[in-house]
Design a protein that fits this description.
This protein is of the alpha+beta class. It contains five helices and 13 strands. The strands form two sheets. Strands 1, 2, 3, 4, 5, 6, 7 and 8 form an eight-stranded mixed beta sheet that branches. It has a five-stranded antiparallel beta sheet with strand order 12-11-10-9-13, with no helix packed on it.
């Protein structure tokens, strides 16, 4: 455990593990036994059971990328719970842009980060809710930094693949912590700004794209009109019909 990161609270307590099943599981176990200070982070080089959205497995080579979880106490009403996704997504996007300033870095709803239409970072947020309020959250983050080889069926990217250079993992972690902290605190003060900025970087927002409705396998052409406070996606087809999607109901067809 270390206390070296220069933030107000995120990463001030940093627990490092060479290998665990899942940093999110480890964080949830901490929460079940105690109340760690907000911003406590669990960093590991290898997760045997790392997870992403739709219960997919997060592929990461040991020592080449960042896999960590952060414990937060958002105190956000459940009807506004997507605000946390927006804050974390923007924080990660900002951190990546500090190292790749000339690249087009977008957020794919709900909270994947894309560079050149390929996934470079994923987020898995698990909330603990009481009386209609999110009282604690475990924010799992996977960021591809120096890995250059991925399985053929995975459209993944990394900071090294984009820039053709190696990055100091510790420096990226420091920047990640400070960028997330900034977005998190800003979101507490200015919800409207966070929401508008999230839409600004949202893939397919007011721009034509295609999605597959997973239940019917129907391809829909259109654009994202809005993301509601509860995270529901408002998709407007080219024929003028609105569809409202929850998580795991659609798949994006990236170019």
């Amino acid at each position: 455990m270390s206390y070296s990161h220069n933030c107000l609270f995120i990463g001030k307590v940093l627990i490092k593990k060479d290998s665990i099943d899942s940093s999110n599981n480890y964080a949830k176990q901490l929460l079940s036994n105690s109340k760690p200070i907000e911003g406590t982070a669990i960093l590991t080089e290898f997760q045997s059971e790392g997870r992403g959205q739709r219960d997919s497995i997060w592929q990461s080579n040991p020592g080449e990328n960042i896999t960590l979880s952060i414990i937060l106490y958002p105190n956000i009403k459940t009807e506004q719970y997507f605000l946390l996704n927006e804050m974390i997504s923007l924080g990660i996007r900002d951190a990546i842009s500090n190292f790749l300033p000339t690249e087009d870095i977008q957020i794919k709803w709900p909270n994947d980060i894309l560079v050149n239409n390929k996934k470079i970072a994923g987020i898995l947020i698990e909330n603990n809710i009481s009386n209609g309020v999110i009282i604690s959250s475990v924010v799992g983050i996977g960021l591809n930094v120096n890995q250059t080889s991925f399985k053929e069926n995975i459209a993944a990217n990394s900071m090294k693949l984009v820039s053709h250079k190696d990055f100091d993992i510790e420096k990226v972690i420091d920047n990640l912590f400070s960028s997330i902290e900034h977005a998190y605190l800003l979101g507490k003060r200015n919800i409207a700004f966070i929401k508008s900025t999230y839409c600004q970087y949202l893939y397919g927002y007011k721009k034509q794209m295609e999605v597959i409705h997973l239940e019917t396998d129907i391809v829909l052409k259109g654009q994202i009109e809005n993301v509601r406070e509860d995270g529901v996606l408002d998709f407007l087809t080219i024929t003028g019909q609105h569809y409202f999607f929850n998580f795991k109901e659609i798949k994006f067809l990236l170019p």
